[in-house]
Amino acid sequence: MKKYLLILLLLAAFLGISAGYIKITAQSAKPTAVKYDAKKDKLVTPTRQDITDQITLAGSISASGVANLRFQNSGKLVWVGVKIGDKVKKYQAIASLDQQELKKSLQSQFNNYRTQLSQFWDTQDKYKDLVISDTIQRILNRTQYSLDNTVINYEIADMATKESTLVSPITGVVVSLDQPIAGANITPASATFTIVDPNTIYFTSEADESVVTQIALGNNTQIKLDSFPDTPINAKIDYISFAPITGQSSTVYEVRFAIPLDNQDLKYRLGMNGDASIFIKKSAQALTIPLDAVYDDNGQSYVFLKSGSELTRQNITTGIETDTDVEVLSGLTGNETIVIKIK
Q: Which residue ranges form the domains of the chain, and what is each CATH number?
């Protein structure tokens, strides 16, 4: 009997200790109230304003109207009519090869043609009264082929003569000359003349695969060049490459922005760097709060509302976010006093 009584007493003591431990644990698990610190914390209220979601890409100025001109044939460069920086008009002659040798070659090809033509008619007269056998037909065909070849050679020589003068296909500015001095013998690969139309400039950037899905043709953009930081340029996206840029360590795509500018005075030059801020979407008179006032708890955004000397947590749903502010879609009315905890 004493043995059973001892067991009951031990069991009662164990249950009492367990209940006390559970009570203490529950008390310690109770969340500590967040206090308002008037010396450190900052008070803000929601405001109504226009807010824009945007993506910023770095880039530079390029041009689509670029002509790289080369002679089709080798020869002696006898005239160069431009220098780097000169403005040229469409169809203006800029350089020329020695035409004396080309003209002599043209005359030689014409003489070959006349000789071959004479031989052609001699052959035709020789066999005109005979029955055309396979052998005779082959002879006549060969004569015709030879005559055709002389005509082709003459036309090639004539083209070489006409192409001995290099003509600009566009109006623009001469930006490079591989051979600026006349008198040198050149090949097509050794003398390139580059002309750029300054009115075809555009701003080009690179967007990685996570960004390119968020933009679209026609997106309004504001471009700020490092050379003119106080003069923003309004532009639009007019090209997004379908294939990624080759030679890059990651998958990036070219994005071009049309710049509606008159650049006759050459104010904007190739290679000028800057940033393009692409406006994705905009909310007019949206309810916004400072970005610093928003906290995150496993994906749930919330703010602290001042309630006397204590703070209460208020869950919110956010929308457009900028570097400084965030749009509040739900959870606030606009009359609350929000506390930013300063650490």
A: 27-54+284-340 (2.40.420.20), 56-65+197-282 (2.40.30.170), 70-195 (2.40.50.100)
